[in-house]
Fold these 2 entries.
Entry 1:
Amino acid sequence: MTVRTRIAPSPTGDPHVGTAYIALFNLAFARQHDGQFILRIEDTDQTRSTPESEQAILDSMRWLGLEWDEGPDVGGPHGPYRQSERKDCYKDYAMKLVEEGKAFLCYRTAEELNDLRNARRAAGKHTALKQSDLELPGEEVESRMAAGAPHVVRMKVPEEGSCVIDDMLRGPIEMDWAQVDCQILLKSDGMPTYHLANVVDDHLMEITHVIRGEEWISSAPKHRLLYEYFGWDMPKLCHMPLLRNPDKSKLSKRKNPTGIIYYQRMGYLPEALLNYLARMGWSMPDESEKFTREQMFENFDIHRVSLGGPIFDLEKLSWLNGLWIREELDPQAFSEKFKQWALNEEYLLPIIPLIQQRVEKFSDVVPLAGFFMSGDLDLDAQAFEHKSLETEQIRKILQYALWQLESERHWEKDRLFQGLSGLSKAMEIKIRDFLFPLFVAISGTASSVSVIESMALLGPDMSRARVRSALNLLGSPSKKEGKRWDKEFASLQRAATAE
Ligand code: GLU
């Protein structure tokens, strides 16, 4: 058997370090067994998937050196590797299960589903809906069908008993069927859900080992049942421990930069970031901290993954990156890498129009644009003093702007402006004043180039990290204050979107 592993990201946002971490372990496992590693794009959620996000995922995986043997851009014998291009096949599989009585058409409306769940809750039962809850009398189905009412295809699941999943790291995991609902396989728009498309594709692409994050454990019973229904062998499952913030919570952009692009912009070496991701829950036999990708692959053993939640610690990453910079780069290589990082045209060209009009000589460039090549800015509280805004207001602006920036799904200058100017109106603060603390947080001074355009170029994580650190400097809200602000922010947002 040839080992085949895969990474199956959904292109719905900025490429996440968690995706790179899972990709690395899939690649290591495949390479260790002389197998293949596949990249598949799971873009069945058409409202949230974007081509820009897909491109960013491919670019950042390549930057890290996580190369794939088959994928949407390199092709391969099991293509297409983008689910939106495979969508016709899923329907046939779903209908096959309907014909065999393993799935059914469900005409229940959203309202009815809600009532059914409430009724179960009131009866003290788990809210997972079963076929017995969902079934409608035959004539009702017929009349809804005749009226062309929207419907979905759901799989049947046992009402009781338990299901045992074998996990390569955890051994057998037992889960109650009572908690598993009759999963939708095909949505009313004819698109498959993650569960159907994922199982069908893993089978058709001959995936032998599914190595993914532990958040998918609860989906495993449905997947196992689907494999059984189709009569296919199930790949071996391995659920990796999730990356965590230093406070042990799940790594999230609210607390930590999570985008790969941030780490690139910060000037980490891809080799060092990969080395650090490898150290997340895994160790070399000799416990060495610094090692290359190849050394990892030579020594790889998935059973050395420890299940304690690995902490993604920026200080430790920086320390390791420092080792790489000092030990692996001679002055020539340092100079090359630095030029590639700071002075590559892709990054530099969009900055030029922002600064050119304000520059008289090249020696003006670094003082004006140095913040594009910095990480955290070393600011002091005085920089935020303003003639008409109190510190209290400035803290609020920073916090609200941060929340606004955290909710932004399309990081692009017009959207950023729209969101922030809506907020400033709702707060009844002149946009010029509102943007003042952001100018300082992002560029270090109030007299810099457009802060909105700067944020668009710096990217979401870097921009948010700077606003967050400005807020920390001036004092982030206490628990009580935070709750009050949270409420106020929600109502301001409602006001801003109602306009
Ligand atoms: N599309 C899923 C994700 O976004 C894939 C999960 C899996 O590996 O099965 O993570």
Entry 2:
Amino acid sequence: MTIAQTSAPVGTPIANGTTALERFGKIERPDLSYTPEVAEATAPIYEKVKHIIPAIEWPALAPTIHAINQLKKQRNAVILAHNYMTPDIFHGVADIVGDSLQLAIEATRTDADVIVQCGVHFMAETSKILSPEKTVLIPDMRAGCSLAESITGADVRALRERNPGVPIITYVNTSADVKAECDICCTSSNALQVVESFGVDKVFLIPDKYLAANVGNKTDVEVLIWDGACEVHERFTAEELRDYRKIEPGVKIIAHPECPPEVVAEADFAGSTAHMIDWVKTRQPEKVMMITECSMADNVASETPDVDFIRPCNLCPHMKRITLDKILESLLEMKEEVVVDPAIAERARVAVERMINLKI
Ligand code: 13P
Ligand code: SF4
């Protein structure tokens, strides 16, 4: 997969003629032994992940977690991690965790010099768009997204030409190039409210045809689609959910709105990754099934010990490119730096800030 990105390859000099490593300086590689000091410093973290990481594996992970946490201080860096990160990242090194909306908002609030985005490329680009003065790193530049891949800025321009006057809302899962061409951005947390905020009878919600259909089912506004889909969520089927209900009587099923509408119709609740987590924490169901990416259940299970998680899930191969080892390299070598053409970033920022300013 190629990423429709505006980022520079590793080590490429950027605007002021320097690489991030030249600007921030070299740091000596840490010793990655499992010393008593490391064991003590990481013990509170292990408490949070012990349900999912066997004790025998901890000595292999703890030194890297400890080294990353030390390096963050040295680099004045903050780690923003999406809810789909693995528990070692989510509980071990992240400063802020959340869904796409929460991460976008936090990117505007941090006073760190460096943002390490543990998520996929469009998320790192969104952080850079909102914080152009900060150095934004992504541990693996290849972490893409099938939705972001499905549409280009030129596609949006053509759509606008063919449909004059129809507002175009872009899901945050798109490149900066696409955001720059759209009227406003949305996430799965606020898509319905953004659609209704225009007060018109017809809008485009691109590029996820399922999110658009799910929002369309909840409003009188006609929601026009683009033919994109999330390769992870489109694999779930309503039949599969009905079968699980037979095998696991009483199970509560909660789904992400990137799933097809017939899957959402079978679920007890649908919402963004953050809304799904809140739902489980607030309702404390006896048994729950999260119809989404696999790490979600792992991450929330430690905070809800009384909930039994039934775990059918699909892995997002892009999210899974982000690993502890790559985060360590990222902070040591100050790579891979995400840069967005300032002219594109300025226009894309308007779309993202309009969404944030709606405060929904
Ligand atoms: P959320 O905004 O719900 O976290 O979704 C992002 C995403 O990529 C889900 O597949
Ligand atoms: Fe993209 Fe789907 Fe992966 Fe989310 S889960 S990053 S929408 S491919």
